[in-house]
Amino acid sequence: MSETLPHTSEATASDMDRRRLVTLAAAGAIALAAPTVPTSAKAQTMPNNWDKTFPKSDKVDHRRVTFTNRFGITLVGDLYAPKRASGRLAALAVSGPFGAVKEQSSGLYAQAMAERGFVALAFDPSFTGESSGQPRNIASPDINTEDFSAAVDFLGLLPNVNRERIGMLGICGWGGMALGAAAVDKRVKAVAVSTMYDMTRVISKGYNDSVTAEQRTATLEQLGQQRWKDAEKGGPAYGPVMNALKGGEAKFLVDYHHYYRTPRGFHPRAVNSNASWAITSSLSFMKAPLLANIAEIAPRPLLLIHGAEAHSRYFSETAYAAAAEPKELLIVPGASHTDLYDRVDVIPFDKLTDFFRRGLSA
Question: pTM, whole model, 2 decimals?
Answer without folding.
Answer: 0.88
